[in-house]
Amino acid sequence: MDRTDAATRLEQDHGKIVRSLARLLDFANADDEALLREEWDALEAHLLGHMDAEEMFLLPSFDRVRPADSATIRREHADIRRTLGELGVAADLHTLRAETVSAFRQQLDEHMALERDTLYPWAQEKADSDLLRLVLRELHPAEEHGAKAAQALGALLEACKDGERGYRAAASDVPERGYQLMFAHYADERAAFAAKLEEALGALGGHPTRDGSRLGALHRGWIDTKAVVTGGSPSAVLSECQRGEEAALRVYRTALRAELPPSLREIVQEQYAAVKKAHAEVSALARK
Fold this sequence. Notes:
Distance between the termini: 62 Å
Number of helices: 12
Largest sheet: none
Shape: elongated
């Protein structure tokens, strides 16, 4: 890997930070506490690792040739760490708001512009190649994100298919017409979700990986075991549906935290909102 390639990878890592901030802002605007917390934890770890790598392997040499610029970068790193600490407290207290995230994004945009104008051009021309490799070793390779996205989407497709099968089993297990119609509606909805995901991925030329349906054992099995034992008791079936939906929500959250193309992200976000709504309805009925 030459200097130019390494410097390009460093700028690409800035892009990942920007995309993570955009997701964080989306989750803050949607007031989705679970996704906000997960994205914040990932962003904080990524930013700290990025700054630590620059300070360990690049800035000591940059100090000698551009001391004023290097000092500014170090000072801004300290400011960013301080802001991270404040926002981390807000995240813990569930008071992290969109306007605060937007202000932090502005702070990071200005810092990244400084590095693009000073540190990275120097790194491309003068930095030691071995040191650049050490920096990149500390960061996540671009290929890892693509693999994680494919894995997350494969799990999402399986979750939708398992949800359809689970709800069809639930509809056939309860005698009440109202519950039958509700479960059938959710089964049709999950079938449509799976078809939409496969269509979108096909248009993008994507082929998500599948490692078997771990969720399937949960989502299909609960109807075949507990519901039989309870003789189709609506409360028992609803409780198992609630548990299955909680597993599905975790899969959606994982997918939303992956590096998805914008068109596919929009589809996943819409489906996630619908699954949250279904979970709320099933949970409310299960508590009655």
